[in-house]
Structures are given as structure tokens and as C-alpha cells.
Amino acid sequence: MSIVPPWIRIVLTVILGSAVIWYATDGLTTYTAEGQRRSDVELIPRTVPDIILIDQNFSPLKISEFKGKTVLMEFIYTSCPSFCYAMGSEYKQLQDKIINSGAKDIVLMSVSFDYENDNAEKIKAYADKFKAVEPYWYVVRAKDIAGLNQLIKTFEVIIVGNSNDGYEHDSAIHAINKNNKLYKIIDFNDDETINEIFD
Fold first, then answer.
1. Quick one: pLDDT at residue 11?
2. What is the mean pLDDT of each run of 10 residues along the chain (199 residues)?
3. Residue 181: which of 22, 63, 56 has the closest Cα?
4. Per DSSP, which regions of 22-105 are E strands?
5. Helices (H) and strands (E) in the chain, counts
6. Which H or E element spans position 19?
7. I want to staple 143 with a disulfide (CB 3.0 to 4.6 A). Which of 30, 52, 86, 173 is the partner?
């Protein structure tokens, strides 16, 4: 009976472990659930559900109305003291860039996920606070909770309540292409990737 030398067992274990890691991370392209979500969206863009939204001017609209344009969508809640404030400031800068560049095929959209608390008046106040101006930047809430849940499920956005009566949530920008498909998820401070959309 032959005995396998220890070094061969070590080599085989390393090879097997490496193969498992390669498979689990899609060829080392994803390391987390968020990384996997982003990779999946780029591989197979997702059709955005055409739910009814109510904007800062209390008017209904649908994503399909922006077909032919790129929509940069973020998820917010109006009482957020940290990330949403930074994202609001970032979106104000992007709005200025859209206006100054004359880009007519890029639209910003901030979607509240706090359906219970963010009524139409709070959406309007948030838009006024950051000087959101249509047709460049729409601050919206879903018309109904079913529509909001459908949108969150499609985007796989993670929202978790915290101990301060607030939320931990995704702070990314979700890029929707001219065919109303979610095709890229971008860190809100990734200026290089955002600038590519303007080119």
C-alpha cells in the first residue's frame, strides 16, 4: 500500500481550494454579494419595472417616458443625515454638469424607499433643499408600496433599519440605459465612470 507524501496532499488541497474560489467568485471577478450584483447587471442588463412614480411637482411619471435617455438613479430617504446628504450634493453637481454641458440625453432620479414617511411634501422639500430642477433631476416616490417593492427587488437594493431610527442602504448610482435597462452600478464618488457616461 502506497502512502501519499504530505507535500502532494498540500498541493492537491491548494489546487482544489483555488478551483472552489475561482468558481465561487466568477473567475475572481466578484468577492461580495454587492460585487456579484454589479457583475450580474453588466452581464445581463435588467428591465426596469415601469411603475408609476410621483415627482417633486406632484406629477405622475414612468421610467418608460425616458426611453432614449440614460437615467442615473439613486435610492434615498429624505431624513437621512449622512449618505443621502452627500449624494444630494453629488447630484446637484451632476445636475450643474448636465446643464452646463447641454447634455439632453442624461437624467438624474432620486427615488425614496421610505414609503411610509416620505410623502409628497417631503419629496418636494428634499428637491428644494438640493435645488433639483426638472427636466434634469427628478426626486420621486412610488405611487404605491407594491411598485416600490418591485423596483427594489429588481435592483436587489439592500435596506436595513439601524438603531438610530434610520437606515443602512445602498449608496450607489444605478445607470439605466436608453432601452430602460439597468446596465451598470456605480459608486457615487466614481467620477471616472460617471464622466464616461457624459462622453
1. 60
2. 62 54 45 81 96 97 96 90 77 96 94 93 96 97 96 83 56 93 92 88
3. 63
4. 46-47, 52-54, 60-62, 70-76
5. 6, 10
6. helix 6-24
7. 52
CA 74/CA 170 separation, integer angstroms = 8
Residue 141 β-bridge partners? 54
Distance (Å, whole) CA 142 – CA 51? 7
Give the pLDDT of residue 186: 94
Contact in structure between 51 and 148 (CB atoms under 8 Å): yes
Q: Which residues contact 47 (CB under 8 A, 6 or more apart)?
A: 154, 180, 181, 182
pLDDT at 157: 84
Q: What's the CA gap between 139 and 122, in Å, rounded?
A: 10
**CA-based end-to-end distance of the chain:** 68
Which residues neighbour 130 within 8 Å (Cβ) at sequence distance 6 or greater?
Answer: 88, 89, 91, 92, 139
Q: What does the pLDDT read at residue 71?
A: 98
SS3 label, residue 44: coil
* Residue 28 grid cell: 475572481
